[in-house]
Amino acid sequence: MKWIEVSVRTTQEASEVICDKLMSMGANGTEMVDPIAFRQALESNRYLDYADDGLLDKYGTDIIIKAYFPDESDPQIISEELKQTLNNISDKISIGPGEISYTLRDDSEWKDSWKQYFKPFKITEKIVIKPSWEEYVPREDELVIEMDPGMAFGTGTHETTKMCAVLGEKYLRGNDKVLDLGCGTAILGILAAKLGALSVLAVDIDEAAVKTARQNVQRNGETNKIKVIRGTLNDVPEETFDLIFINIIADVILEISRDIKKYAKNGTYIILSGIIKDRKAEVKSKYSDLGFILIDELNMGEWEALAFRA
After folding, report:
1. The model's pTM
2. Which single residue of 107, 169, 264, 266 has CA 20 to 30 Å from 34?
3. Strands, DSSP E only, in the chain?
């Protein structure tokens, strides 16, 4: 599918007028990139773990409005008409840079091109992650997980997932019952099943993640061991597990800390990841105060992972 993407760099004050004009000209839809609103959201919550240093500065201050027109449209005519509208309103409101640009877009630009960057790799000593479109012959001591990212996070390339996998391989025992909370693509649940877990309950709040997780579980032949549900910890039946993965963010890890005790028994391993360095002490203190014993910790880049035993 092809279409024409028209972009206008402007101000918040002029954005509504420009959006209305673009739609009246036949745009199939508009999108507004508002760095001011994004900046306010990040600054109002200093605990957003994905707000890395310098992120605010990357967006500048101008509003960027994008509109999408059928590919048979004439971008030159669109630009000229839009330029006339900007000139007409510029004496009444600030239009900022008022820069107009356009480009022809095609799904083929990105539909499959990203696949060239996703190759088989070892996530732990035993486990190899392999995309479905790649060939890989494992060694005798290797186990292979076939993983497609789909619409959700979690192919094993991110540090938080890698650390969970390493700790999971270290502490999982044969015939364990495992809870994978915030499962994403279910990579950790599948890893647990491959390593000998008796059963795995994989849970995620995101519908796209749940769909992708179920596809990956089926692709790896683990439907008899792994059940995927949509929900939060409150949707998990109250039963105890032998090992619990929680790879989310520090705020959620802290929020559910007391409730986790209902799902743990003496000897349960709880592996926490998705924690930025600045929150590590807070998480460690909270879980220690609840009676969990810290037995291991890892760090990669700006991220921390902690392993506790109940």
Report:
1. 0.65
2. 107
3. 2-10, 29-33, 63-70, 99-106, 121-122, 127-130, 143-146, 177-181, 199-204, 226-230, 241-247, 264-276, 293-300, 303-309
Q: Are 212 and 191 in contact (CB under 8 A)?
A: no
pLDDT digits (tens, 9 = 90+) for 265-289: 999 999 999 899 999 999 999 999 9
Residue type, 89: I
Place of tokens 């999971």: 168
**Model confidence over 55-104: pLDDT tens digits?**
455 556 788 899 988 888 898 999 999 999 999 999 889 999 999 998 88
- pLDDT band, residue 49 (cuts 50/70/90): very low
Is residue 38 a contact partner of residue 59, using CB atoms and an 8 Å limit? yes
**Phi-psi group of 309: left, alpha or beta (phi > 0 → left; psi -120 to 50 → alpha; rest → beta):** beta
Please provide residue 168's backbone torsions phi and psi, each rounded to the nearest 5 degrees: -65, -45
